[in-house]
Each structure stands twice: as structure tokens, then as C-alpha cells.
Amino acid sequence: MTIRAALYLRVSTTDKGQETDNQLLQLKEFCDRQGWSIAFTYVDRESGRKGRRERGDFSRMFEDAGKRKFDVLVFWSLDRFSREGIRKTIAYLQQLDHLKVKFKSYTEPLLDTENELVAHIVLGVLAYLAQQEAVKISERTKAGLQRVRVQGKTLGRPDGFEQWKDQLVNMSAAGYSQGRIARETGLAYNTVKNYLARISIKNRVT
């Protein structure tokens, strides 16, 4: 039974002077040498950092893979397939594997799942690298948060307190009620109440 191949090609809009023609020609010649028939060709002209929903043919390729419309996916190189980071990339490759669709990188012979043993080794190594990347990201995030805390900075989104503080102090000193302050500033009543409480606390501390 002839193996049905699908080709995936991508050229980013930032890849000046590049086109998919050279990729397509060599991938076709490769499939001919393997004796594979080319069932589908998918072409995106988007950044590889964009996700599945943002790359039309990338998304269609996975839909067709789920319907078993081809047996093996051939792409020029892993960075032509995806540049979303190793965790996303490994998830895509694992999805193809779960769908019983093999994959092959034309310029990276080790990324070849025609051999079942090689497939398990490749996916295992990539999964390990993805796990290590996740650990490093977590460590960098924790280190960054700790550095911010040490510097005395407030984490999270600013709540507007500093913007309204002086005006609220003046209005409160002029005898405005919390309800009137809320109406004239457009702030929620509970926000006004909270800000005034914070001002009171700060005044007591100082």
C-alpha cells in the first residue's frame, strides 16, 4: 500500500526574499525517492510563533490528520513547523503520534518517526527538554517575583489609588460624603470607601 504523504511549508512574512518554492521542490523530490504519494500540501505565510488558530493551513493539516487523510507529515525543518517554544512543539508532535501519523524533518534526519524505536526516543528526548524548559521558566519567574518584592514594588495591576489619592483627600477635607465623592468622581462607592480607608491608615502611620 502506497504511503500517503502530506507536506507542510511555512514562510514567515519577515523572511525577506524567501519563498516556499525551493522547499516544495526538494520535499517533492524526497517523497518521490521514498515512493510516497503526495496527498496534500499545506502552505502558511505566517510567523512560526503564531498558534494553530492563527495559521490556517497548519490548523487544516491537523484536522485532516485526525481524519487519517495521510500517513506521514514531511516538513523542511522543525523551525518551519513551529517556533512556539519546545513545549508547544512537542505537544504538536505528540498529537501527530497519537493520531498514528508519522512525521519527518527533511533537514534533520533524527526527527524521523518512520522507525518506531527512533520515534519513542525522539519524543522522549523532546518531552524531557520540554519539561526542563518548564522548570527553568518557573525558576526564572520565581526569581523575578522575589527580586520585585526585595525592591519593594507592588505586584499586579495598579489599582488607581495613587491617581485619585490627592483628589479624595481634598474632597474628604471639604466635607464631601463618600456617596457624593463616588458620584462626582465616577468611582464605585466601595472603591471610594477602600481608598479613603487606605488614606486614613497611611495618615495614622505617618
Explain what the structure shows.
By secondary structure, the protein is of the alpha/beta class. The chain has two domains: 4-133, Rossmann fold (3-Layer(aba) Sandwich), CATH 3.40.50; 161-205. It is built from eight helices and five strands. The protein has helices at residues 21-34, 56-66, 78-81, 86-98, 116-150, 161-173, 178-185, 189-205; strands spanning 4-10, 37-44, 72-75, 102-105, 108-112. A five-stranded mixed sheet has the order 2-1-3-4-5, sandwiched between helices. Strand 1 (4-10), helix 1 and strand 2 form a beta-alpha-beta unit. Helix 4 (86-98) runs antiparallel to helix 5, helix 6 (161-173) crosses helix 8 and helix 7 packs across helix 8 (189-205). The longest helix is centred in the middle third of the chain and has 35 residues, at 116-150. The radius of gyration is 28 Å and the shape is elongated. It starts with a strand and ends with a helix. The model has no long low-confidence stretch (mean pLDDT 79).
